[in-house]
Amino acid sequence: MKKIIAIALAVVLALALAACGEVVDGPGMVNPWTDVKTAQDAADGAGVGYFKLPAENTETPIGPVNWTAFRCMKGIAEADGFVGVPELTIRKGLKQDTKDVSGDYNEYKFTWTEDVGDWQVTCSGNTEGRAAKAIWLSDNFSYSIMVRGQGSEAETFGLDRDTLTILVLGTE
What DSSP state is assigned to residue 55? Predict the structure, then answer.
């Protein structure tokens, strides 16, 4: 009886794996991101048309903007780099069920809005007036800016209004 149960379980497992159509080696899910060489490659791969970013070495109050990597998945283009010392990620995604394409699920002490150009930008951070995350909508797209690694909560962590403005206005 134990052999029959073991064989039945093996058959069910084999059928389940075959039904998936894709077998993953090791734990976890298949990575949906594809590394690419440029912001335009990320836009093309994501299907968002174009992905304009602040130019390399754009000066901000906290330092220059530098880009180190680009990637995409269906519906989202991403650029990674630095603004001064903090790590910087900017995303552009197709507007779907949510306006937040940041992938950040942290809870923040403060949430507020800033008017930047024609957009109303929702900001979140643990230091009042300093955004660790910023999100906004434009036409059929959702945008996000995230910064990490600038300091502790006791320090002035996040983007000040002037830096945020430069980043938002430089992104499309």
Answer: P
How do residues 118-150 score in pLDDT, each as one tens digit? 999 999 999 889 999 999 998 889 999 999 876
pTM here is 0.79
**So what's the pLDDT on residue 30?**
87
Beta strand pairing call for 63-73 and 133-138: unpaired
Burial 19-34 (b: 16+ CB within 10 A, else e): eeeeeeeeeeeeeeee
C-alpha closest to that of 54 among 87, 73, 81: 81
Whether the CB-CB separation of 147 and 86 falls below 8 Å is answered with yes
- Cα separation, 82 vs 147, in Å, equals 8
CA 81 to chain centre: 12
Per residue in 110-120, pLDDT tens? 999 999 999 99
Q: Are 116 and 169 in contact (CB under 8 A)?
A: yes
Query: Which position has the token pair 């206005």?
Result: 169
Task: Provide the 10 A C-beta neighbour count for residue 168.
Answer: 22
How many CB atoms sit inside 10 A of residue 156's CB? 13
